[in-house]
Each structure stands twice: as structure tokens, then as C-alpha cells.
Amino acid sequence: MTRGAVLDPPRTVSTRTTATPRKRDRKRWGLTIIGVVVALVFLMPYLIMLSGAFKSRQEIL
Amino acid sequence: VLFPVGFMIYTSFRDLSRFGKDRGWTGFDNYKRVFGLDPLPTVLTNTLVWTFGTVLATVLLSLVLAQFLNKKFPGRKILRMVIIVPWAASVVMTSTVFVYGLDPFYGIINKFLVDVGILDGPYGFLKNATSGFLSAMAVAVFVSVPFTTFVVLAGLQTIPHDVLEAAQIDGAGKAATYWQVIFPMLRPALAVAAIINIINVFNSLPILKTMTGSIPGYDADTTTTLMFKLIQSDRQIDTASALSVVNFVVILVVIGIYLKVVKPMREVNA
Q: Which terminus of chain B is more exposed, N or C, with fewer CB under 10 A?
């Protein structure tokens, strides 16, 4: 069967190396950290509001 | 759907008292009063800046955020849910949090900006028209980004994986793949996002009312808040009706120009 060989792209086209599983994992967790920062930005006003909701008027003023 | 629009147009040609009593046909007098309003040039400029500034910033941020949310990483589902919050929450509530946060005496945002050295001392963001207007625009972007991001994300997910694979095999880099393959295929999603955003932002009242409503004069007003002031403060119901019709025509023209110039629904040539 030569069909697969015909469809396979020539090796010279892409010079990009594939990441090792450990490298890929590290990159994914890096994205998670960015995600946490993004989530905090989007939740900030509501977290401020929530923290205020548990305080007495005297504590806020 | 047609009744409120028809009634608005009908009212704009009537002479209405301060209490809403119909005193008969008045021709184009209400329109003449609208175009004779002193603050109209400022208000129209503000409306343009408000609409295009907010929509442009929203779309750009959403493109970046949607691209990020399309990647696979642990916690992606939770982040997608978290990002909806500003869109799902009440706009008045969100704006009010920012009003208190920006307060020069006890606002947490003001204190943070002073603590990190961005400001020398507390600044009254909502005490003058320009900074108040820009702050309101920032909040408008903040509440508009979630919806736009999800529309763009939906667009990203419709792009077939084999097209991206073909680009990669052809030797296209990340930037070339994005600008020459992904971005053209996002056009319909971007069109929907942009049109809905233009309509929403153009007609938006609560953010400006909450954040810049206490600033005297019309320097931080758009046509929508001006309309509200005409009804609420000046009790000019008929003039406000004429301004509503003008507003309606302006938004139709803006969307028409957008569709004509950008041609967002044009077929993508493979």
C-alpha cells in the first residue's frame, strides 16, 4: 500500500520541531496561569462588591 | 415591532405639553428644535467617539481573548464561564462598583493607581467630562467583551481543522495562518458581533447615566443620554421623540455604511 506515503507531506516543508510531552504540559499550565489572571480581571468588580457585602457600614466608612 | 416605531414617528410630529397632553399637529417644529439645540455638535461627536471607540476596543480585545479561549489548557471551561459574568451581571450594578472604585476619597481603584505609582494623588475621574466619559467607555468595553468574545469563539470553532493543517503543511507561520486563513473565515462572526455591538453601545444609557450623569452640562452626553435629559429634566417629550427618530435613522445609516464599506458577509475565497 503506497497510498499513505503519497499523502504524507514531504519532510522538508516544515522545519518546526514537535514539542516533547513535558514541554507541552508546561506550556498548558502557563496558559492556565494567564487564564487565572484574566479571570481575576473579569471578576474583580464583583469580588470587591462581594467583600463589601459582608462588611458593616461602620467598617466600610 | 412596528407599533412603537410608528408611534415614535407619529409623536415626533405632535405638539405635546410637559405633561404629555397632545396639542395637535406641529409639522417639523420638533425636528427644527432638535437641530437647533446648542449642545448638538458636541453630543454628536461624543456619540461617534463613544460608539466607534468602544466597539473597536471591544472587537480587538475579543479577538485576542477568543484566540486564547480556543487553546487547550486546564481550567479552560471554568475560565469560559467566568468571562460571561460581566455580561450576565446588571450593567447598573457593574457601573456602580466602578463609580465607587474610582471615587477620589475612598475608591479602591484610585487607591490602587496611587499605590502602584501611576497617579501622584487621588484623581476625580468622574468629576470632569473627559475623564468621566473615557472611564464610562472603559466600563462599556468591559461589559461588551464577553458577548463579543463568545461570538468570535463560535466563529473560530467553525473553522475546519484540515484548513489549518493545510496551511501548516504549506509552510505558513502562525501570523500568516491567522491573517490569511483564520481572520478571513471569521468575517461573518465579526460582522454579527460588530453590528450587535454598534446597536447596543449606540443606544446604551445605564453606563453613562450612572457614571457621568452627575456631571453638569452636555460634554459627556451622547444622543441617547441627551434624549433622556430632554424627557427627564426638561420634560420636552415631543423634542425627545424627534431626537429618537433622528437616532434611529443615524443607527440605520451607520450600519448601512458598515455593511457597504466593510462587506462583512462577503464570501471568503478559498
A: N
Q: B170-203, pLDDT tens digit by residue?
A: 888 888 888 888 988 888 888 889 989 999 999 8
Given an 8 Å threshold on Cβ–Cβ distance, is B82 in contact with A43?
yes
Chain A residues in contact with B101 (beta carbon < 8 A): 45, 48
**Chain B residues inside the 8 Å CB shell of A32:** 73-75
CA distances from B46 to B14, B43, B216, B230 (A): 28, 5, 15, 17
Taking the CA atoms of B49, B86, B61 and B125 in sequence, report the sign of the dihedral they define: positive
Q: B186: closest CA among B79, B60, B54?
A: B60
CA nearest B209: which of B118, B104, B88, B126?
Answer: B126
d(CA B181, CA B28): 52
In terms of residues, how long is chain A?
61
* This prediction's pTM: 0.84
Q: B217 by DSSP, 3-state: which?
A: coil
